[in-house]
Amino acid sequence: MTTGAARRGSFAALVPLREQPARDPITRTLHPDRDHEPPAPVPGRSRRTIRERRRREESAAGGRTRRVVFWVLLAALCAGTVALRAWHQASAYELFMDEIQYADVGNSFAAGHGPELFGEPFFLHPPLLFALFGLFIDQPVDHMTVPFVLGLRPIELGFAAANVLLVVGVARRVVGPWAALLAGLVYALDPFVVRFDSRLMLEAPMMFGTLAGILALLVAVDQPSRRARFAWLAVGGLAWGIAITTKSTAALITAFPLLIMIVTSWGLRRKEAVGVLAIQCSVYATYVVWVLATGNIGPWFEQTIAGTLRAIGILKQTGFNSGHAPSFVDRLLVQGVWFFPSYLLIGVACTYASYLLFIGWRSLRVTREDRGAHGRRTRGAHALRGDGDDLGLLTCWLAGVLGAIVYTFGLGEVEEQTFYLLAVPSTVVVAMLLTQMASWQGAGRTALTVVVTLVLTSSAIIWFTLRTARDDTYLQLVEYMYANIDVQNEVAVGEHTAQFVLPGFGIHELTSVDDARATFSRYAVVSTELSELGLAPASPELVDELARRYTLVFTAHGRTAGDLRLYDLNQPLDGTPPVAPGPPR
């Protein structure tokens, strides 16, 4: 079996390890004892890479047809990824409060005001993506509305399409084409990933820069010339800089892996890792210079420092580690019915990535034989020998991802979206795992096929269930209120989202009936699910009190908000005086 054969074959026999050549990077990491000295270079071919020779062998063996099939399937996978997220995108997932804020900052850019949130400077997140949102807004609005925010969600589809291509591209650097396509299919169907890709969130755009950066670095380590290598390294640093100027959290899974490379000299040479980190930091520094030039250094410093302190865990105001947050385990169990394939894949991927780190560390080290006369690696040694720096680089990246998530989970501001940083890299790890497991015979291979089929089938079933059920209670609420209620009325809201999407109404926070009485609020809005989870100012006891004492005029049910209820406080059920007996303002 030739070297190139490791990248051919069907899923039924992806890469039998016992047949793989010793220089195959997957085999070399999983079985370092098989890592023999490389053959002497062929005269006249010293600048050709191992990957180039594989391409020639594949072409001679009819690889052109396989490549055409691969690209056709990849195009279909990309189109399917977009379709899976576009179908019922507005109604399948409840409006998230962060979406309203991001839409408002984008609206501010469209109006020419720069990064502002409801009229105030906003630098909690870098403005790169919000400026992009502004390009899709033809006519800025004075106030946020639910239809306006939902109308911006399709922007995320472009990032989903790009990300599935990048996932396949990253996986393809270390595994065969069919395993890489399978990694893309896992990304396309993963319920946890689909939920974030379908909303106006920062995670998918941030991951675009992250994946583009790691792919550029993987290409760089395969280059035979110093100029090409440095050019791709610069592209990688630029992409990772774009990632952190999209959302600062990206630094956890980009800068941390580079620090590992600087310390260990795995994947990249130390100077190269320092250079990539410098380019990444220079991109962010450009953003800081822009802040200085616009005279916003004060708000930037205050909000950025506060965000950094939360990220490292000194301040715990939000997230599962904060004092008032619901239990992480309870939340996991509640959402398990919808995201268990995602949880399973994340767990398996983390375990396997840890296994790779444990058994493969010696194969990633730079030995004395790899160095020149002065203790430095010779120019082009990585590419000429094909010595697995692509896998070393990928392993360092995964180590950085795992380390960052472990720290964040234990000490930092861990939130649900934090695990998006782990879910997407896990798809690449799954491709590596399947590549090794494909060597199993008989019952083992059958079990593997069954498990993969069940995971993908369950993900598809969950997708269909979520997409065919409505989870848009806020859209239904505002449609009812503007059609049936005078906007001159005061409204007490016992959750956090409605206050931003009811322009014209007088809005007040609701923590008790006395609050509503003091503000002359005629109507009250509460969410049963958010109150039960402790994510709303109205307590479950207040929700029960309103149900006993006042007339329910509207309710909408969804997975996220539970029952979103609207009560008329001027129509008591127990004979007590109405809360707002006076005329509306």
TrEMBL record:
It is a multi-pass membrane protein. It is an enzyme of class 2 (transferase). InterPro entries: ArnT-like_N, LipidA_mod_glycosyltrf_83. The chain crosses the membrane at residues 68-87, 164-188, 200-221, 228-244, 250-268, 275-293, 338-361, 391-412, 418-435, 447-466. It is found in: Cell membrane. Residues 45-54 have a biased composition (Basic residues). Residues 20-38 have a biased composition (Basic and acidic residues). Pfam families: PMT (PF02366). Residues 1-58 are annotated as: Disordered. It comes from the Bacteria. Its EC number is 2.4.-.-. This is ArnT family glycosyltransferase. It comes from Actinomycetospora rhizophila.
